[in-house]
Design brief:
575 residues; Isoleucyl-tRNA Synthetase, Domain 1; Rossmann fold; 3 domains; Gyrase A, domain 2; alpha/beta
Length: 575
């Protein structure tokens, strides 16, 4: 195998695998006597991209070859010959830096970009379940509920784009002691008639339970009665669930969040009770201090039945997981739930293994950081409620004010304002690492400056404006794009499929948002340079250069649009 023997058709640009340029580096390494698989893993894009286009660190080969990395690097350079993909190789200490055939790279990179750019069939035939959103009923959606919904929807979008069969699920908290607290509130305040009144009644019931053990015991009694399908408890439950789902649907539609399956804890109560009996009979659970536990080998056992005979949400989680396995035989199941539940999910997965569910290793917890208000976690039962709809409406109001000031003649200002305001809110959840906490601050959450959803929408709209003025690219030759700013954009565009693959593997939508921000900044730098230097303008008189630059702008537009949609943000053509 030599570098020149690698055919270009080996590379699928949508699959996120090695490009022919990277394969050519591997070919040089093999010619120098290095193992192919290790070379495939080692070849990378350097952080300082002005020094090299690709680099091969030689540390991984030193032990097996019993030679110093610097010596190995020199041997790789000696084996190099220029070819259709690579034009130069240089040893820099233990690294080999390669320079690409830029004309070939530009043609290949830009020809790959279209409305399906980044799609892949890597997940063909595989099923992924994503549980996200999962609010408790009898409460309106609050701002901190957005984290699970936004991250989960972005992951569903990513996996579908990568070819997986995806089942997006929400698992309503519609039973248990929390519902008992609500019924204690109803006993004092009377029956609520809308979701807002249900929420206030829940807060009042929680306050009573916190102040008085007798009220707390009453809440447990109500929870037990609901488990046993007591008619009065069921009547309140059915009303709360119906009104809650109506309210959830309105907000989720606003956000573009869609669940394929809506389940709830209540549907698993009877099966949870039956499961505990079977586990006791099979010796996989044992009685402890009046309750029933599963020993998982961790610090504390996993409690599956309380001393009063009621099950817990952990018991229902076990039954729900078994039911999902039986329904979908999934390859992966992700729980998008805040970081406070990390211990619970470690115990849950360990409990599933203990009772014989060998597929438990396919389950994973996507733990996200918490929403903090004045440095503390937001808690509905204590009345710390920032309603999500209020944040969305405020975002829309602020966006409309900016539009009225800067682009008063914009068509359909209401729709644009809603899309921009929503982008600001959603980006605060998908724009930064999943495990990062969010401190609620109106100005920060709804900022339209810097690294934000509205900024990305604005850059996309700028690209659309250029294309409207310039028309179709026609017969464009990307090899004409030789300026350093153009080369930066081309290389950045080529990274998109690999970024999507990594974001899906690591369950980290912020990798996509970071990529889009870098692409947007580089495009703005290019556009600004054209405003200062007429020779760098996209719409130059030279028709072949104009066509090449329009093709570059169109590639940026496609990539920004695809990435924004994956994040759950609407790309806009005008702002």
């Amino acid at each position: 195998m030599t570098a020149t023997s690698i055919p270009s058709e080996d590379y699928d640009p949508q699959a996120g695998g090695l490009s022919p340029f990277e394969q050519a580096v591997v070919g040089v390494a093999v010619k120098a006597g290095l193992p192919a698989e290790e070379a495939r893993r080692a070849v990378t894009v350097p952080r300082e991209r002005d020094r090299a286009d690709l680099t091969l660190p030689c540390f991984p080969f030193a032990k097996a070859l019993k030679r110093a990395p610097g010596q190995i690097a020199a041997e790789v350079v000696a084996a190099f010959q220029p070819n259709e993909w690579l034009v130069a190789a240089e040893a820099v200490g233990p690294f080999v830096n390669f320079s690409l055939n830029r004309a070939a790279f530009a043609r290949r990179a830009l020809e790959a970009v279209d409305e399906a750019y980044g799609r892949s069939d890597e997940g063909r035939g595989k099923t992924i379940l994503v549980e996200y959103g999962s609010p408790n009923i009898a409460k309106p959606l609050l701002f901190h509920h957005l984290r699970s919904a936004a991250i989960g929807q972005a992951l569903c979008n990513l996996f579908r784009w990568r070819g997986y069969d995806v089942v997006g699920m929400t698992f309503l908290g519609d039973t248990g002691t929390a519902f008992g607290r609500l019924l204690v509130g109803i006993e004092k305040l009377g029956e609520p008639e809308d979701i807002e009144t249900f929420s206030r009644t829940y807060v009042e019931g929680s306050k009573l339970c916190n102040e008085n053990d007798a009220h707390m015991e009453r809440a447990r009694e109500w929870a037990k009665r609901l488990e046993e399908d007591d008619p009065e408890a069921l009547r309140h439950w059915e009303k709360a669930r119906r009104l809650s789902l109506q309210g959830f649907s309105e907000i989720y539609d606003w956000l573009g969040t869609h669940h394929d399956v809506i389940d709830g804890e209540k549907m698993y109560v009877r099966r949870a009770q039956e499961l505990v009996g079977r586990l006791l009979a099979d010796g996989k659970a044992e009685e402890s201090q009046g309750g029933v536990v599963i020993e998982t080998g961790q610090k504390t056992p996993f409690l599956v039945r309380k001393s009063d005979g009621a099950t817990l949400y952990g018991t229902r989680d076990i039954v729900a997981a078994i039911d999902r396995w039986e329904r979908y035989a999934f390859d992966r199941m992700l729980y998008v739930v805040d970081i406070a539940q990390e211990v619970h999910f470690r115990q849950l997965f360990a409990a599933l293994k203990r009772i014989g569910c060998d597929w438990a290793e396919r389950c994973a917890h996507v733990a996200f950081g918490q929403v903090l208000i004045a440095g503390s976690r937001a808690k509905t039962r204590e009345g710390q409620a920032v309603h999500l709809v209020d944040v969305l409406r405020e975002g829309e109001r602020r966006a409309r004010a900016v539009i009225d000031e800067k682009n008063a003649d914009l068509a359909d200002k209401d729709a644009v304002a809603k899309a921009v305001g929503t982008a600001a809110v959603v980006f605060c959840d998908v724009g930064f690492p999943v495990r990062k906490n969010i401190n609620f601050d109106w100005d920060e959450i709804l900022s339209f400056d810097g690294r934000t959803g509205p900024y990305l929408q604005y850059v996309h709209a700028s690209a659309c404006s250029i294309l409207r003025k310039g028309g179709a690219a026609g017969d464009a030759d990307p090899a004409r794009l030789e300026h350093a700013l153009e080369w930066d954009l081309i290389r950045r565009l080529a990274e998109f499929p690999a970024v999507l693959g990594k974001a899906a593997r690591e369950h980290e939508p912020s990798l996509v948002s970071s990529y889009l921000y870098d692409l947007a900044r580089e495009f703005r730098a290019y556009h600004t340079a054209g405003a200062r230097d007429a020779s760098l303008r996209v719409l130059v008189d030279d028709e072949t250069m104009r066509a090449a630059r329009l093709k570059l702008v169109d590639a940026v537009r496609h990539t920004l649009a695809n990435g924004l949609r994956l994040l759950g943000i609407q790309p806009l053509e005008e702002m």
